[in-house]
Specification:
The protein is α/β, with parallel strands linked by helices. The protein folds into three domains: 350 residues, Rossmann fold; 201 residues, Rossmann fold; 272 residues, Rossmann fold (3-Layer(aba) Sandwich), CATH 3.40.50.920. It has 38 helices and 21 strands. A six-stranded parallel beta sheet has the order 7-6-8-9-11-10, with helices on both faces. The chain binds thiamine diphosphate (TPP). The site of thiamine diphosphate has 19 residues, from helix 3.
């Protein structure tokens, strides 16, 4: 390995032998990358009409030496990299050459497994073999130390907030490895709004352990980037430099390679340097790069730039040609030096602008259409031959005894040691905190918030109560005077790991107690308001500091940033075994502003709580323009919309417990919707107590009668429910808590009431969140007309009818709640024809009316899941200001609309006519029919279904 180590200074690396060695490894990786993509595009199993496979050889080649400097010299196995998605094959090829394809247990893949994996870029595994996704992914065998990629502009921001989370952990006394966070971005990617939202934030937070590297190749997907040098006072790299310096970043330009530098130091060379750096437009440079003939290139430069005619005329055309093509971003020595320098900056994040050539080393270099062009067979053969490889040697590492081979083995071992050390640390942290979690017994099912004194509280208020209590518990010493109550002690550990954050809506979403004097991070300042005697004690103290009791991360209006931050903090449990649980509030409407970041967090399997509050048109008095609640259906997410404050408390307690006990696979992104509309909390118990299951001393045959039934309660011996005694509240609420956590519960349940006739006078109203007040009123109005309308409150659309429900065939809806599609038959009254051959019956199912404050898609599939008629009342137009009553009426979510919809579904379901042939009637009556006249039944066609095995049981891996 000679003099190079992973701590190599630029001096060490610049020794000729070392540079040659690193260059030779990069050159092999260049070939491997290209071959990997070539093979992906020439697979034998391609069928007519298949989408193209693609891959990005030119974009990989552009980043080759940047990626190489990190893999071969600079990064440690504790560092993290967020690379531009289309350079993923280059990362795989470096990991191949360093033998860093790893199994789950961190042992290495065998050489044949690794070679097979190199053939599997963008392939679906046929027999469990290793493959690679198109972009960096946790499914890949070399994902260690990499952030997932795919959507540009998001991962670099996550890298920054991960860097911040490491600092947070260290400041709070947890064991964290020394790590640097690297991101490689394309120059077009660097125009993404998400990136620019984060730039000032990272500097102000003093995230020194972060380096972004712009792969400045002046090309994007569509072709050459054509920027406006006149208006922007220079080329785009200058604009980037000025922007970043103005935003508090260190900037390092890596412009020139050694050939250019040699020319610059020749007589008159400074004129040439000025020409390249200040006078040549990016677009013109790209056009010059496309010229294949050096003499022509010389001619055009002289023609367009008289001021350097003298210098250019004096030099050899080939030398000029080579210099124009000699970018610093392909000089691994210069890159290593810049990266090492960037690490010296401890308080400021750094940006390296690496000037590169898209398609370096390929025939497509600098060609405007090269973004995803794949070399042809001829070029591929040439690249293979240049590596000294035979035709059948597609992928190969260096011989172990060669200088390059030895270097790669040593470097790969070093990185693997770090990866394994991090895994050990993760396990150590995990078992340490697991033990501490159980020190005071199991986590209670609620936080014990006292609601008695609260008049008309709302769920957003309740969130504030819960987080305030957790903040107090976190900051109360176990052996202090104001000791914690016995039932508070189990919350001690979780509360210490709860980190809250909000995009400038902390106070308005009721997080004041979590914020007050507890803002974590830079910029640490004296409290001038206190010093000058102008402090308003009613408002939270927002002066930041880095005290261990500080756990609120304050943001400007930057929903994208906070969503990335909540995702990065939510990864720390997984990466380091430190169970940070980030909680973010956001005005629900603006979740959409960061939809991509939200998706990224879920793809990354981050564990976090996002509270969208206030939400829906329910907030219309305050924000009619923000009253749209979107239906999000993303794997790994669970959405909640509590109605009563107790529900929110149970949901929060459950989410916390699942996070700390690692019991939230497939649902670690918790999304809770809150409102600011108060509700009489006594309704909860009062309505539940009318249900038969919560009455004392009844047997199976007992039938209840409602106090207000139109018949006056005279229902043939039924018992007036209001006169019956109830089981204790604690027991009743424990049953309901479990149902709330399953996604829905009966708030009004008439199933054991006298005169309850499914198919005749029964329907189910599903309501979610605040509009349930309307469902209750509608149910009461329907009862006056003799209709029994159950009210089933939906707490989680995901668990009841979304992705999570689909996994268990909607068991809660269909089995536990018993909502089904039985057809209740009666002869058609007045006119149903009954002949010798055919009998006509009216079939009725129990229909559904659903009502919720949001997009129809949140709940409009209930009827189709169950197989009954559904009318879905939802928000279908833009909102207006007004009181909830007005607004619910405006959107047809009010009680009258529900009653009307109920009439509609009840009458429509009654229109189902069944014609029964006499042979069927005979069969029903036990007489045989000819077997040949029977078609195959569905049970015969899908036998696994009849055995209770659904189609989902297939192996999906
Ligand atoms: C958010 C998003 N938009 C679009 C794309 C598709 N896309 C992938 S790479 C690319 C061009 C990237 O150009 P640049 O950032 O300059 O990188 P280069 O390939 O030139 O190095 C585009 C448009 C994407 N992956 N993500």
């Amino acid at each position: 390995m000679g003099k190079i180590s992973d701590k190599a200074s630029s001096d060490k690396v610049s020794k000729d032998l070392s540079k040659d060695l690193l260059d030779s490894i990069c050159s092999r990786v260049h070939y491997l990358t290209t071959q990997m993509i070539y093979q992906a595009n020439h697979r034998a199993d391609k069928e007519k009409g298949d989408p193209k496979v693609g891959g990005h050889p030119a974009a990989c080649a552009s980043s080759l030496h940047i990626v190489g400097a990190l893999h071969l010299v600079v990064k440690s196995g504790f560092d993290y990299i967020a690379n531009k998605p289309h350079a993923a094959p280059a990362d795989h090829a470096f990991n191949y050459i360093l033998d860093l394809f790893l199994k789950e247990d961190l042992s290495r893949l065998s050489l044949s497994e690794a070679n097979q994996a190199m053939l599997g870029l963008r392939a679906f595994p046929k027999a469990g073999e290793y493959v690679f996704q198109s972009y960096h992914s946790a499914y890949d065998c070399d994902h260690h130390g990499f952030l997932p990629s795919g959507t540009v502009g998001i991962p670099p921001v996550n890298a920054g907030y991960m860097a911040h989370a490491y600092t947070f952990c260290r400041e709070h006394g947890y064991e964290v490895p020394d790590a640097h966070f690297w991101s490689i971005l394309g120059d077009s990617e660097f125009r993404e709004g998400s990136v620019f939202e984060a730039i000032p934030d990272f500097a102000e937070r003093e995230i020194g352990n972060l380096t972004w590297i712009v792969d400045y190749n002046r090309q994007s997907l569509d072709g050459h980037r054509i920027t406006n040098k006149d208006i922007m006072s220079g080329t785009d790299d200058k604009r980037i430099e000025r922007t970043m310096i103005a935003n508090g970043w260190e900037v390092i330009q890596v412009r020139h390679g050694k050939k250019r530098e040699a020319l610059f130091s020749s007589p008159g060379g400074q004129v040439f340097k000025k020409f390249i750096e200040d006078e040549l437009q990016d677009y013109e440079l790209q056009a010059l790069l496309m010229l294949e003939n050096p003499e022509q290139l010389k001619k055009f430069i002289i023609q367009e730039h008289a001021q350097i005619k003298k210098f250019v005329e004096a030099i050899d055309a080939q030398m000029l040609f080579d210099a124009i093509h000699d970018f610093g971003g392909h000089d691994i020595t210069a890159l290593v030096a810049a990266m090492e320098k960037s690490k010296e900056s401890k308080r400021k994040p750094s940006l390296i602008i690496a000037h590169t050539l898209k398609g370096w080393g390929l025939r497509s270099a600098a060609s405007p259409g090269n973004h995803s062009s794949v070399p042809d067979e001829d070029e591929m053969k040439d690249l293979q031959k240049n590596q000294g490889l035979k035709d059948d040697q597609l992928f190969a590492r260096f011989a172990a005894h060669s200088a390059a081979g030895k270097y790669c083995i040593e470097r790969g071992n070093k990185i693997l040691n770090d990866i394994q050390a991090e895994a050990k640390l993760r396990e150590k942290n995990r078992s340490f905190f697991e033990k501490r979690l159980h020190e005071f017994g199991d986590l209670p099912t609620s936080l014990g918030i006292n609601l008695k004194m609260a008049s008309y509280p709302h769920t957003q208020w309740m969130l504030g109560q819960c987080t305030a209590k957790l903040t107090r518990i976190a900051n109360t010493k176990l052996n202090s005077d104001k000791a914690l109550a016995v039932d508070e002690k189990p919350w001690k550990l979780p509360s210490e790991f709860l980190v809250s954050m909000a995009p400038d809506v902390g106070t308005s979403t009721n997080l004041n107690p979590s914020m007050d004097g507890k803002i974590f991070g830079a910029n640490v300042l004296p409290d001038y308001e206190a010093e000058f005697g102008v402090k308003d004690k009613k408002l939270p103290n927002l002066v930041p500091s880095e005290d261990q009791s500080h756990r609120f991360i304050r943001f400007e209006i930057a929903e994208g940033n906070v969503t990335s931050c909540v995702g990065s903090y939510g990864q720390i449990r997984h990466q380091l075994g430190i169970p940070i649980l980030p909680l973010m509030t956001v005005y629900d409407f603006f979740v959409k502003r960061a939809h991509d970041q939200f998706f990224y967090n879920l793809y990354w399997k981050s564990s976090f709580i996002l509270v969208g509050t206030p939400s829906g048109v329910t907030l219309s008095p305050e924000g009619a323009q923000h009253g749209w609640k979107s239906d999000f259906q993303i794997p790994n997410q669970i959405t909640w919309e509590p109605l009563f404050c107790l529900e929110l408390e149970w949901i929060l307690a459950d989410a916390i417990k699942r996070h700390f006990t690692y019991d939230n696979d497939g649902r670690s992104g918790v999304f809770i919707r809150g409102v600011t509309r108060g509700i009489d909390q006594k309704l909860f118990a009062n309505l539940l107590k009318r249900q038969k299951r919560f009455k004392l001393g009844l047997d199976a045959s007992s039938r209840l009668a409602p106090k207000t039934h139109p018949t006056g309660g005279d229902l043939g011996g039924a018992l007036d429910e209001s006169t019956l005694e109830n089981i204790p509240d604690s027991e009743m609420f424990e049953q309901i808590r479990q149902e709330v956590l399953m996604g829905a519960y009966y708030l009004i349940d008439y199933r054991s009431y006298a005169g309850y006739e499914p198919g005749d006078n029964v329907l189910n109203i599903f309501s979610m969140g605040s509009v349930t007040t309307e469902a209750i009123r509608a149910s009461e109005a329907l009862l006056e007309r003799g209709i029994y309308a159950n009210v089933i409150v939906v707490t989680s659309p995901d668990l009841l009818a979304g992705n999570l429900a689909q996994q268990n065939d909607y068991a809660h809806l269909r089995k536990h709640l018993g909502v089904e599609a039985s057809l209740h038959l009666n002869p058609i009254p007045n006119g149903g024809s009954v002949s010798a051959e055919i009998m006509t019956l009216a079939g009725r199912r129990v229909p559904i009316v659903s009502v919720h404050d949001g997009e129809p898609g949140l709940l409009d599939n209930l009827g189709s899941i169950v197989g009954v008629r559904q009318e879905c009342l939802a928000v279908r137009k833009h909102s207006k200001c007004g009181r909830p009553d007005d607004i619910y009426r405006y959107h047809h979510l009010d009680a009258e609309a529900i009653v009307e919809a109920s009439g509609k579904v009840l009458s429509e379901t009654a229109l189902e006519q069944i014609k029964l042939g006499t042979n069927v009637l005979r069969e029903v009556a036990g007489q045989s029919t000819s077997p040949t006249s029977r078609a195959q039944t569905w049970q015969e066609l899908w036998p696994q279904m009849s055995q209770g095995t659904s189609g989902h049981a297939r192996d999906d891996h």
